[in-house]
From TrEMBL:
<dbReference type="GO" id="GO:0009249">
    <property type="term" value="P:protein lipoylation"/>
</dbReference>
<dbReference type="GO" id="GO:0005737">
    <property type="term" value="C:cytoplasm"/>
</dbReference>
<keyword id="KW-0408">Iron</keyword>
<dbReference type="InterPro" id="IPR006638">
    <property type="entry name" value="Elp3/MiaA/NifB-like_rSAM"/>
</dbReference>
<feature type="region of interest" description="Disordered">
    <location>
        <begin position="1"/>
        <end position="29"/>
    </location>
</feature>
<dbReference type="GO" id="GO:0046872">
    <property type="term" value="F:metal ion binding"/>
</dbReference>
<dbReference type="InterPro" id="IPR058240">
    <property type="entry name" value="rSAM_sf"/>
</dbReference>
<feature type="binding site">
    <location>
        <position position="92"/>
    </location>
    <ligand>
        <name>[4Fe-4S] cluster 2</name>
    </ligand>
</feature>
<dbReference type="GO" id="GO:0016992">
    <property type="term" value="F:lipoate synthase activity"/>
</dbReference>
<feature type="binding site">
    <location>
        <position position="70"/>
    </location>
    <ligand>
        <name>[4Fe-4S] cluster 1</name>
    </ligand>
</feature>
<keyword id="KW-0004">4Fe-4S</keyword>
<dbReference type="InterPro" id="IPR013785">
    <property type="entry name" value="Aldolase_TIM"/>
</dbReference>
<feature type="compositionally biased region" description="Basic and acidic residues">
    <location>
        <begin position="19"/>
        <end position="29"/>
    </location>
</feature>
<feature type="binding site">
    <location>
        <position position="85"/>
    </location>
    <ligand>
        <name>[4Fe-4S] cluster 2</name>
    </ligand>
</feature>
<comment type="similarity">
    <text>Belongs to the radical SAM superfamily. Lipoyl synthase family.</text>
</comment>
<keyword id="KW-0808">Transferase</keyword>
<keyword id="KW-0411">Iron-sulfur</keyword>
Length: 317
């Protein structure tokens, strides 16, 4: 049995650049990675707040499997800078194409929504905006500042683009806005970048996270990997070492899930016990916090994980 998330026509609208690619089968998921459809009242309430504020969430745009669980608890990862990405990564379900103009009122909308939802911890991510001179850095900073204004007790986690080929001042502007956690995902091992993340550069992304630590040593840094794309265990461990050399505090590892037939195929479904092994190895390498499971995503359980992250730093002194 094959289950598709998007119809062919919908996929073509969202990913026109992928339509000339050959189809890849989308196989049946193993039992350990299936989730129930969201139907709870908490989910509906969160959805209503998001829609009423005119906000975009990566939960919906990236077809996250955890949306039901997270939205039931009023945890939503807000996506800024529009809903259209200038890149075409082989794994991503976010719409690609030519983005529209920035919404100057978006920072205030996000700040007010954060306060209305009563969030203790909020995660802000975005599409890539290679069309903007600063990659959207100033907009990111304004969103952080608006959240600080409307919800001063809320801790802020950001998941940023790589600001590739942008002035160094762009990244510094975001760092100086003072997020509590600065996340940028490496996504996969260097060997697979050309096919999986062709618009990015592995060592640039690694250097970005290192720069955060140089400029703001007390800011937590975080990065994530997908597995099941054809990487080897040795390659994953080498990425862990690279991350530790860059001072990254928090590592997430989750199973890649293929959004449509036109996206990169799943090489294999990694079993839960293998994720447990990765977590043990990562902790031994010195990460303050590790989340590794088939359904782990960058912002999954982000509020609880942030509390553990702070506790782990305090315990190390």
């Amino acid at each position: 049995m094959v289950t598709l998330i998007d119809t062919a026509s919908a996929a073509a609208r969202r990913h026109p650049e992928k339509q000339k690619r050959p189809d890849s089968p989308v196989g049946r998921k193993p039992e350990w990675i299936r989730v129930k459809a969201p139907v709870s009242e908490g989910y509906k309430e969160t959805r209503q707040i998001v829609k009423s504020k005119g906000l975009v969430t990566v939960c919906e745009e990236a077809a996250c499997p955890n949306i039901g669980e997270c939205w039931e608890k009023k945890h939503a990862t807000m996506m800024i800078l529009g809903d259209t990405c200038t890149r075409a990564c082989a794994f991503c379900n976010v719409k690609t194409g030519l983005p529209g103009a920035l919404d100057a009122e978006e920072p205030d909308k996000v700040g007010r929504a954060t306060a209305e939802m009563g969030l203790n911890h909020v995660v802000i991510t975005s599409v890539d905006r290679d069309d903007l001179a600063d990659g959207g850095a100033d907009h990111f900073a304004k969103v952080i500042e608006a959240i600080r204004h409307h919800a001063p007790g809320t801790t802020i986690e950001i998941l940023t683009p790589d600001f590739l080929r942008k002035p160094s001042a762009a990244l510094d502007r975001v760092i100086d806005a003072g997020p509590d956690v600065f996340n940028h995902n490496l996504e996969t091992v260097p060997r697979l970048y050309l096919s999986i993340r062709p618009g990015a550069r592995y060592y640039h992304s690694l250097r970005l996270l290192e720069r955060v630590k140089e400029r703001a040593p007390r800011q937590f840094t975080k990065s994530g990997l997908m597995v099941g794309l054809g990487e080897t265990r040795e390659e994953v461990m080498q990425v862990m070492d690279d991350m530790r050399s860059a001072g990254i505090d928090f590592l997430t590892i989750g199973q890649y899930l293929q959004p449509t037939r036109k996206h990169a195929p799943v090489d294999r479904f990694v079993p839960p016990e293998e994720f447990a092994t990765y977590e043990s190895i990562a902790r031994a390498k010195g990460f303050l916090m590790v989340s590794a499971s088939p359904l782990t995503r960058s912002s999954y359980h982000a509020d609880a994980d942030f509390a553990q992250l702070k506790a782990a730093r305090a315990a190390r002194g």
